[in-house]
Give the backbone structure.
Amino acid sequence: MHTTRIRTVAGTVVAAALAVGGVLVAAPAANAADVTGPAFWADGELYRTVGTPTDFSGTGAPASSFQPLYAFPADTQANVTPSAPGDPGFRGGRWAITEVLLPNGYGAALASGDLDDDGVLDSADELWAAADAGDLVVGEITRYFECPVIPVPRGGR
């Protein structure tokens, strides 16, 4: 079980398109309703999703009904979330897109956070290890939305 810690950096703003880019642009899709390629990691497992046009930003939905989806900068890696279906804290695919900043570069974050040496930050524990080392900063929530969670078949991408 992973504990979700909430950290923010006041005044940090990155375009929602960049933050969401890692979620749905992980693989090309013919239209927004197609299944994506690998989009995010949870507990070392890779998941994909279906692009949906939902946006719950500004609707007044309680923040507790969403879980963080840590959006890595484009061209680094798939995003990370602290829980997946069946885990405590899973919110049914309701996401709070939370930007990730890499002040020392992706290589530094990987060096300090890749606890299992598999070449990717693929869990919340690894994300927070890189953050604790100062190589990753969790920024602000940029958007709230919903999309399904679909496991990537083993050996598939």
Observations:
- The chain is about 15% helix and 20% strand.
- The mean pLDDT is 81.
- The CA atoms of residues 46 and 154 lie 9 Å apart.
